């Protein structure tokens, strides 16, 4: 678990790449600069950790492209102390970015192998979510609701109703919606019946699987 001058230098370059692609939120850029992404990937791929690309993390899943992580995080308008639900923990990188920014993170993963591996890693790195749940993200985490923000990091065929219900009034949901390619949607909950929906361009995610959690 080491972070060297070399990996720190590579992160600085990565931040400049992402800034060049249009990310402006300094708190987001600072979190990318701080969180050692290479530790969230299998060691044989270390040299790729600071390219702006997604990467396989085992169990058929990927760690999202850094630009995509930054883009979704910017859309969330994260404030210190925000209570945020993440659906699709995967490697734990996005969760760590949110924790680094001072959010209280609740995260949920449906693949047990990945869940166990990431749980151990986050403890080692001392990035501690308030709750790391094994289960089906379509249902959200009703026992811990309501949330200031919800972020979904897998492609959803539709917007799951429980995620809208578990938002506070004024809360924000960022979710890529679509089958083969996804439209990045930001949905702002004005009150229980009024939502404002914005489209923020096309992305490609692994699917948010619509069945119960998997061993
Ligand atoms: N946020 C992750 C990216 C993960 S890729 C990171 O920073 O690395 C998407 C993840 O969503 C995968 O780990 C996948 O197993 C998980 N996933 C897919 N369907 C899900 C569901 N219904 N509930 C919870 N997690 C789900």
> Which assembly state applies to the chains in this document?
single chain
User: Low-confidence segments, ≥5 residues, pLDDT <50?
Assistant: none
CATH homologous superfamily designation: Vaccinia Virus protein VP39
Alpha carbon gyration radius:
16 Å
Outline the biggest β-sheet.
Answer: 7 strands, mixed
Task: Describe this protein's structure.
The protein is an alpha/beta fold. It has one domain (51-203): Vaccinia Virus protein VP39 (Rossmann fold), CATH 3.40.50.150. It has six helices and nine strands. The protein has helices at 5-20, 26-34, 66-76, 93-100, 112-125, 161-165, and strands at 55-58, 61-63, 83-87, 104-109, 131-134, 147-152, 167-177, 182-189, 195-203. The strands form two sheets. A seven-stranded mixed sheet has the order 5-4-3-6-7-8-9. A two-stranded antiparallel sheet has the order 1-2. Bound molecules: S-adenosyl-L-homocysteine (SAH). S-adenosyl-L-homocysteine binds at residues 61-64, 87-88, 90-91, 93-94, 108-111, 114, 136-138, 153-154, 206, 208-209.
């Amino acid at each position: 678990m080491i972070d060297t001058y070399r990996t720190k230098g590579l992160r600085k370059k990565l931040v400049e790449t992402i800034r060049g692609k249009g990310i402006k939120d300094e708190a987001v850029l600072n979190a990318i600069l701080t969180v050692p992404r290479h530790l969230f990937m299998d060691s044989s791929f270390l040299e790729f950790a600071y390219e702006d690309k997604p990467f396989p993390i085992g169990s058929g899943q990927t760690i999202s492209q850094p630009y995509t992580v930054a883009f979704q995080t910017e859309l969330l308008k994260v404030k210190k102390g925000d209570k945020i639900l993440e659906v699709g923990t995967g490697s734990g990188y996005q969760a760590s970015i949110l924790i680094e920014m001072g959010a209280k993170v609740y995260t949920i993963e449906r693949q047990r192998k990945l869940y166990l591996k990431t749980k151990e890693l986050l403890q080692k790195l001392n990035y501690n979510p308030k709750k790391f749940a094994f289960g089906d993200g379509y249902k959200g985490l009703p026992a811990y609701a309501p949330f200031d923000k919800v972020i979904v990091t897998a492609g959803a065929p539709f917007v799951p109703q429980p995620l809208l219900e578990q938002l506070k009034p004024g809360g924000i949901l960022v979710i890529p919606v679509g089958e083969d390619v996804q439209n990045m949607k930001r949905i702002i909950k004005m009150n229980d019946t009024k939502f404002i929906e914005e489209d923020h361009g096309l992305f490609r995610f692994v699917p948010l699987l619509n069945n119960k959690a998997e061993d």
